[in-house]
Design brief:
Elements: H1 2-32, H2 45-75, H3 79-84, H4 92-134, E1 145-147, E2 161-163, H5 167-174, H6 176-209
Antiparallel strand pairs: 1-2
Subunit structure: Interacts with OPRM1. Interacts with palmitoyltransferase ZDHHC17/HIP14; the interaction leads to palmitoylation of GPM6A.
Family: Belongs to the myelin proteolipid protein family.
Pfam family, one: Myelin_PLP
Amino acid sequence: LIATILLYMGVALFCGCGHEALSGTVSILLNYFDVTKGPGGGLDVFTIIDILKYIIYGLAAGFFVFGVLLLVEGFFTTGAIRDLYGEFKITACGRCLTAFLMFLAYLFFLVWLGVTAFTSLPVFMYYNVWSMCQNSSSMEGANLCLDLRLFGAVTVSEDRKVCTGTEKFSRMCVSDELDLTFHLFVCALAGAGAAVIAMVRRITLSSDCS
C-alpha cells in the first residue's frame, strides 16, 4: 500500500508539475525569445512540447491502471491472506501473473530512470539561467547571452538569444514565469525520483513474496 501511494504521488507530481512547466516554457519562448511556430507546421520546439504533454497524459493514465494492478496483486500475496487460506495453493496462473507484473515493474523502473535523467536536463538548464539572473548585478560589463541554438530549441540559422544588460533579459529575470517554471521542473524531478523509489520498493516486495 505504501509503495502504491508513493507511486501515485510521484507520478501525479511529475505529470502535474511537468505539464505546467512545459506550458511555462512555451510562455518564456514566446515572450522573451520571440520564437514563433514555423510555417507548414513542421517539427519545431512547440510541436515537441505538445508531444511531451501527450506523453505525460499517457503516463498518468497508464500508471493509474498499473498501480491498481500492483495493489491488487500485492494484497493477495500478503501474509494475512496466506494465514486466512492456509490450504490455498498458488496456481500456475497466479505465478505467471506475478512474474509478469514483476517484469513490468522492472521495465517501468528502467523507464522511470530514463525519465528522471531526462527531467534533470531542463532543471540544470533553468538553474543556469536562474543563476545568471541572480548574479546579473555582479556581472557589470560582462556580455553573456542565452542562445537557444545551444539547446537545440531552434535551427542553427535562427538567431534567438537574450543577452545580459538588455530589457528582455531584465524583464525575464524579474518575471514570475522563470522562477515558477524552474521550481515546477524541480518538483517534477522530485516526483520522478519518488516513482523510482516506489518501483524499487515494489520490486523488492514482489521478490520477497515470490
